[in-house]
Amino acid sequence: MKILIDINHPAHVHYFKNIIKNLGQNGHEFLIISRNKEIEHHLLDANSIPFISRGKGQSSLFGKVLYFFKAILILLVHVNRFKPEVIVSFGTPYPAIAGWLMRRPHISINDTEHAKAHHLLTDPFSKSILTPSCYQKDLGEKQIRFDSYMELCYLRDNYFTPDPSILDQLDVAKGQEYVILRFVSWNAAHDVGHSGISLEMKRKIAKELSNHVRVFISSESELTEDLKKYQIKIPPEKMHDALYFAALLYGESSTMASECACLGTPSIFLDNDGRGYTDEEEERYGLVFNYSESLLDQTRSLEKAIDILNTPNREIEFQKRHQKMIDEKIDPTKFIAWFIEQYPMSHQEIKNNPDLPSRFMDSR
User: FRET pair for 282, CA 20 to 30 Å: which of 50, 81, 140, 342?
Assistant: First the structure.
């Protein structure tokens, strides 16, 4: 089978890398096309995944419109040359529209309810839409639910082994605890209307938490001079090792909050919209703590961070919660790989038997 996968965000590299490996071992042929927005190409190279670039996006409205048509044109050219039997992306419009125009089925995977523009421009052109079972919207007959989180595609212990040498790279002394603060740029299409954590509050958070533990900051946008002393300086592909050994993650990234849940590290996530998966990771497992972007919640979340750091036997308690989650969730890599390999029969099989994905509970 020929499979085209489109990468539109750094997280998508992680979502798909083990799926590509799994299906590649079964003899399937791939064409990977990737945007060059942030560190997608760096991560693909780090994972030895060959790819074709579809260039950088634009920040202005006019630039976004131009890039929209440019990306579709690039995909049309490669779909015509490669002739894939199926196209897969993480809720990205360009491959969905290109597939529709070329009469090639597009499988969309999505876990972000409020990405309205992407849903509007992707769902009508997709044949199947895979979502976690905690996804809060009903997308109709195209939707297939599976009981897991996308971050388990690469952070289950059968895919990920934490590397303790990251502590040397961070220059963290033996027994010294640290937290990671994650600030996003709020430039994505679904970020319109968000303000995030205020600069004043970022300074306060860094200062107050540094009274308890070492503080590192990972930021998509440029940090002010006074915050640069906290900036984390590690290769991007080593971030999951750093998250595993951290005492806490505090920030604006839903993906990194969920990554921490999948690693057993507590996290605090601030966003007015929230996510179905981070809500479940709080309500069902107590691994993520969700707050809005309001000034009151920014203060309350800082208090919660300090409370977590002062929790007795914190590491043991959160590992218990993490193990409960692992025991209850399927291996999404195995499930998605099966769904692609058996497509389109897989879609109908699950419609006939919605419990079918549960057979991917034990990957060993």
Answer: 140
Same domain flag for 193 and 246? yes
The C-alpha atoms of residue 215 and residue 93 are separated, in whole angstroms, by 38
Domains identified in the chain, total number: 2
CA distances from 296 to 54, 205, 270, 307 (A): 42, 14, 12, 17
Of the candidates 331, 158, 330, 166, the residue with the CA atom closest to the CA atom of residue 234: 166
Q: Which of 54-58, 84-88, 249-253 has the lowest mean pLDDT?
A: 54-58
Is residue 160 very low, low, confident or very high in pLDDT (cuts 50, 70, 90)? very high
Q: Whole-structure pTM over 0.85, yes or no? A: yes
SS3 111: coil
pLDDT tens-place string over residues 242-270: 999 999 999 999 999 999 999 999 999 99
Where residue 245 sits, what CATH number does that domain have? 3.40.50.2000
The 3-state DSSP class for residue 145 equals strand
| 331 vs 76: CA distance, rounded Å | 32
- Taking the CA atoms of 141, 119, 54 and 13 in sequence, report the sign of the dihedral they define: negative
pLDDT of residue 164: 96
Q: CB neighbours of 296 closer than 8 A, spacing ≥ 6?
A: none
Task: Look up the domain containing 57 and give its range.
Answer: 2-148+330-360
pLDDT digits (tens, 9 = 90+) for 291-321: 999 999 999 999 999 999 999 999 999 999 9
In a domain? residue 144: yes
Is residue 205 included in any domain, yes or no?
yes
Regarding whether 316 and 172 lie in a shared domain, the answer is yes
Residue 156 lies in a domain: no
Rounded-to-5 percentages of helix, strand, coil across the chain: 50, 15, 35
Same domain, 313 and 346: no
- 157 found inside a domain: no
Q: What is the dihedral of CA 2, 8, 11, 16, to 10 degrees?
A: 0
